[in-house]
Model the fold of this input.
Amino acid sequence: MLTTKELFARRRQRTRTQIQIKAGGRARLSVFRSSKHIYAQIIDDRQGHTVVAASSLEKDMRAKVKTGADIAAAREVGLLLAERAKAAGVETVVFDRGGYPYHGRVKALAEAAREGGLSF
Done:
């Protein structure tokens, strides 16, 4: 019987494999959520480096939101990430939900990034 961590790792790897197949040279918007915060970064896999990143831990984000573990914080992180991505010249990405279901905070971050101007 597989543990919860092993099952999560399988889902994450399965998602990432499909993304790499379908990416077509686009950057990857990767999401990580913990019990207290949410993090997002846009990664250029061809060069192997992070283009832009945003999280609910940043000083200006902590002033805006009450906690980093709710949908409002995820929405603010998505908008901030989209703003930074546009400044860096990134307009199209592929969304990597990282094994998490597309629901709640992950969905709020993705929709806010779309509202901010990213297309995926």
Q: What stands out?
A: DSSP finds four helices and four strands in the chain. The domain at 4-115 is CATH 3.30.420.100 (Nucleotidyltransferase; domain 5). The chain has a mean pLDDT of 95.
